[in-house]
Amino acid sequence: MQQPVTEFFLEDLTLNGGLYVLFAVPAFLVCWVVLSGRLKHRRIQPQRRAGPRDLLHDLAYSVLSLIVFAVLDFVILKMEERGWTQMYTDPNAFGLGWLIGSVVLLIVMHDAYFYWMHRCVHHRAVYALVHKVHHRSTDPSPFTSFAFHPLEAVLENLFPLLVVLVLPLHFWALLAWQVFQQAFNVIGHLGYEPYPRWWLRAPGLRWKTTSTHHNLHHETFAGNFGLYFTWWDRLMGTELPQYEARFLAATQGSTAK
Q: Which pLDDT score is estimated for 255?
């Protein structure tokens, strides 16, 4: 029996909206409200501060994005019902190794997809139409993580729609990837640097993006296009040269000029 459309949309909005609230709201309350004074030395842009209008702007566009995501998830559902996807329901069908490995593969593939999609929406021919809404937040907050123009929301959520066509994926794998990407998306827009000062010196960890990495992208409107990892920026020469200095400034309490 097919699930009623209204019921599906309510469940999808509850799931995606719930993840947004679960990560964004506590992060904002802790860093921007309760501990804002104690974490002042961790501010990445101490000279700027997003105001109420900026926060309302991000919240409004986040709601629109959640609606767009629900529509695209509905498309995936209909594709699955018609047998067009490689999704499977039995978690033992491909084994536990693939179930876990598929999550890792999704993260790596999504990082590549995001990097090149992100560079495309920065092209001057489409930037004002698509990506400008997200970049209104020059001092991003956790609520900026889903603040997209509806057209960009389509591009953002086009990845799972495409990947289910070619990879055998269980719903749990897609859900785990969604939780992962939402958590790290909030960290990237936190406005504060939560990672320790030694992060960039640790083998392997320097390849993981920090809050400073993406915050600089919002501040400069250029470079640092990566989502989870820095390797595409390093490979393509798009990592901002001031990244390390700004990270060290945010983690030692001094202000980079």
A: 46
Three-state SS letters, the chain: CCCCHHHHHHHHHHHHHHHHHHHHHHHHHHHHHHCCCCCHHHECCCCCCCCHHHHHHHHHHHHHHHHHHHHHHHHHHHHHHCCCCCCECCCCCCHHHHHHHHHHHHHHHHHHHHHHHHHHHCCCCCHHHHCHHHHCCCCCCHHHHHCCCHHHHHHHCHHHHHHCCCCCCEHHHHHHHHHHHHHHHHHHCCCECCCCHHHHHCCCHHHECCHHHHHHHHHHCCCCCCCCECHHHHHHCCCCCCHHHHHHHHHHCCCCC
Q: Where are the domains of the chain?
A: 5-252
| Residue (of 203, 217, 184) closest to 44 by Cα position | 217
CA atoms of 103 and 30, how far apart (whole Å)? 29
pTM of the model: 0.92
The two three-digit tokens of residue 202, written as one number: 């640790």
Tens of pLDDT, residues 143-162: 999 999 999 999 999 999 99
Tell me whether residue 230 is exposed, middle or buried, using C-beta atoms within 10 angstroms of its C-beta: 0 to 12, 13 to 18, 19 or more. buried
Q: What is the dihedral of CA 60, 65, 71, 76, to 10 degrees?
A: -160
Contacts of 36 by beta carbon, 8 Å cutoff, 6+ apart? none
Closest CA to 103 of 177, 5, 154: 177
| Euclidean distance between CA atoms 73 and 91, whole angstroms | 20
